[in-house]
Amino acid sequence: MAKGSDGEGGVRRRDLFKSAGAAAAASAFLNPLRAFGQEAGGGTGTPSVGPGPVEIALDVNGGERKLAVEPRRTLLDALRGDMDLTGAKRVCDRGTCGACTVWMNGKPVYSCMVLAVEAEGSEITTVEGLGTPDNMHAVQAAFVAEDALQCGFCTPGFVMSCAWAVKEHGTELTDETLRESVCGNLCRCGTYTHVVAAALSAARAAEGE
Amino acid sequence: MKAFRYLRPASVEEAVKTSTPETAMLKAGGMDLLDLMKERVLTPDDVVQVPAVPERVRRVMTGPDGMLLVGALVTLAELAEAMAGPLPEVAHAASLAASPQIRHRATVGGNLCQHTRCGYFRLLSMPCWKRGDKECPVLQEGGVQENAGIFSNGSCACAHPASLPPVFAALDSLVMIQGAKLERTIPIADLYAPPKRGKLTDTTLAAGEVLTRVLIPPQGDAQLGYSEIRQKEAFDWPLVSAAARVVLRGGKIAAANIWLGSVAPTPHRAVAAEKALMGKPFDDATIQMAAAAVADGATPLPGNSYKAELATVAVKRALLRAAGRTK
After folding, report:
1. Strands A107-110 and B5-7: what pairing?
2. Domains and CATH numbers, chain A
């Protein structure tokens, strides 16, 4: 996913942000970090963390990722900002547009409406974990073949919803079921018909597996 | 979001204790809560996660008396799956709600405690009677009224948007609530209270009380129908939702419950429509008559009189589904 970061001989926009934010991040790390169970909440004996950063370990795309986040940090912001997994996009940030869709234990969720701290213990799959440019998931390949994107910003979310539908229904996937499965994703370019065609062709391709 | 402490109590009792202070709020799936926290309408110091223990809080179970026990942490996706056999219309309502991404996170308890979707309530830059301001801007000249309520809208014209409360109410369901000292069980209708100036929630839950389960009594041969009308076929809130439950005895209607969502600050019971059904055969003429009585007592605003008509249609469709005459 970091492929081509210096390919054009320039500095990536994200890298620029990263170095600018490094100083702020470093100061945050001066605070002692806490993990669950280390401190009681309100004298009740209830485990609590925050409001400062807390160390967590997330299972992302099959590997463990350790990071420090405030409880208010969403899974989406942790994926993008702390783990450099920028496939999931931050658009509405209100659980409405679907651009941030990832799988939690194999099911699509809006990562903008999940706290990073509550994602501990769940298997998180992002579009980066589905396939790579050299080894694409059937749905990703079908998106390319069917030209199922225009500006591409909603695409990672659509791919996650479509791949879930294909996983759930396989060759039984119908036009209606697919449309229902992706109803939580919006595309302002209006690529819907191509998205449907891509997902259905990926479902048909699943027959051979 | 304002920074907060995140608490993970190990039991419901502990959740009661930690969520009792005014600065604490309970969180289940968090779909509604995080949304309101991002808008800074809600700014808790402590966010208390409703614990997934004991098991009854997160499962659908059948009681020895045939009662269906739905845990508050059951997601809408899980509810749709669990109800497909025993109560298909509940499954229908659950699967119409929101999108798959939300149904995988949003819970039954959260749906019952859902805050209004009124745009004024959710925008801090706007005044709102419910948030403590003097007047409800919906009722003022130029107020945006199309999503507002058409019943009991005198001082606050917000609408209760959740789709499950009318369904559970039509089924005569009860909710179990864990408090500091005891667990109480109340009819679901009693979970809701008319809006009060400065009171952000729509429920009668006291500080710290945790909704743990919904109890659905055995339905016998009762016939159930749910229908909702919305602007978009895909992923939208209902403009109006309606649930109807009818019991026939000797070819005549012996019991009828009709509840509506999104038309009043709390789930709304269509009493006149229920009366119109009683003692009649369950046919087209009766359904027409009942539907015609749905808007009885409605006080639509200039900007949402269409909702009175939608309510009529939603009830007609719910009754037709209950009668098994339409899909």
Report:
1. unpaired
2. 12-48 (no CATH), 54-124 (3.10.20.30), 138-208 (1.10.150.120)
